[in-house]
Design brief:
Elements: H1 11-47, H2 50-64, H3 73-97, H4 102-109, H5 112-124, H6 130-147, H7 160-187, H8 194-220, H9 222-230, H10 232-255, H11 258-264, H12 267-280, H13 286-304
Length: 306
């Protein structure tokens, strides 16, 4: 049985699914962080995602038939770059989310959109169109408005909000480099189905991430490993949704430039606000309404260039 052919527009629903899955994963990881620490929660996202990535690879490889793709050193190098950057980005994101509320870490990490456009231009020579660049700027402005505090800080110094900004920006830069790495890996494998590239890419990347971070924690903080084993139910949720999100991102970026995919991925901000409002039942401030509107305008713009 052959895999279905992906039309040029199929990256849109795949990206929307990836953003939704990532929102659920972030919520699960936030709970894990309070129990296993930042790095322990990060490892759970990768380690417990491996079985689900493997099941997906078995499924799509079986549908495709034939042998596995002919991976090579260039592909492996890009995957390792993406894997290490994603590992770092996830840790920074969880650190940012610990500083304020659920949305702020996600919002500041979304500065990655402009950074991924820059990195894609520099390393992959994929220059965004004028419409795409405008959509990225508008959406990023919306994210900035969403991230503004309700009232100015009363004191100076390294307040939690300031740390959230720094961690969020660092997370965005690492996420951007991660997207470029995974997009670069797919470009080295022309003619291979995006479904296969998505599945295998996540499996290889999460194997690297689990070995690196698992080895570090085994050496420095073995108690974190015991914790994520003890709270395995929550770890499984984080891993399953993390694998689902990553497979979506990988597959979408095998079809479309990383900058476009990550811009549309800002829909995650809407999903995060829904989660935040459902839990805390807070009303949107005027700046947040404008921010959501600008993000929506940017998402429409990135889709209109098709």
């Amino acid at each position: 049985m052959e895999l279905p052919t992906l039309a040029a527009w199929a990256w849109i629903p795949i990206t929307l699914w990836a953003a939704f899955a990532q929102t659920v994963r972030n919520a699960a990881q936030r709970s894990l962080t309070s129990q296993a620490g930042t790095l322990g929660a990060t490892l759970a996202r990768f380690l417990y995602g491996l079985p689900f990535a493997l099941l997906w690879v078995i499924a799509v490889q079986g549908m495709a038939g034939g042998g596995m793709p002919a991976f090579h050193l260039g592909y492996a190098a890009w995957v390792v770059v993406g894997a290490v950057a994603q590992l770092s980005a996830t840790a920074f994101l969880l650190m940012a989310m610990q500083q304020r509320n659920f949305i702020v870490g996600v919002a500041f990490s979304k500065t990655e959109v402009l950074q991924v456009a820059l990195f894609s231009t520099l390393f992959l020579h994929e220059v965004p169109t004028w419409l795409a660049a405008g959509a990225m700027l508008v959406a990023t402005l919306g994210v900035v408005l969403l991230s503004l505090p309700a009232r100015p800080a009363a004191t100076a110094g390294p307040a939690p909000m300031n740390r959230a900004v720094l961690y969020g920006l660092a997370s965005g830069a690492c996420f951007a480099m991660s997207a470029v790495g995974f997009r670069g890996a797919s470009l080295t494998m022309p003619g291979v189905s995006p479904w296969l590239l998505g599945g295998w890419g996540v499996l290889w990347a999460q194997t690297v991430q689990s070995l690196l971070l698992g080895g570090w924690l085994l050496w420095r903080d073995p108690a974190a490993l015991a914790t994520i084993a003890r709270v395995w139910r929550l770890s499984v949720v984080a891993g399953m949704m993390g694998a689902a999100a990553s497979i979506g991102w990988f597959t979408a970026m095998a079809i479309r430039p990383a900058a476009d995919v990550r811009t549309l991925g800002l829909i995650e901000v809407f999903f995060s606000y829904l989660v935040s409002r459902k839990i805390f039942r807070e009303k949107l401030r005027p700046a947040e309404r404008w921010g959501l509107g600008l993000v929506l305008l940017g998402l429409v713009g990135i889709c209109l260039q098709l």
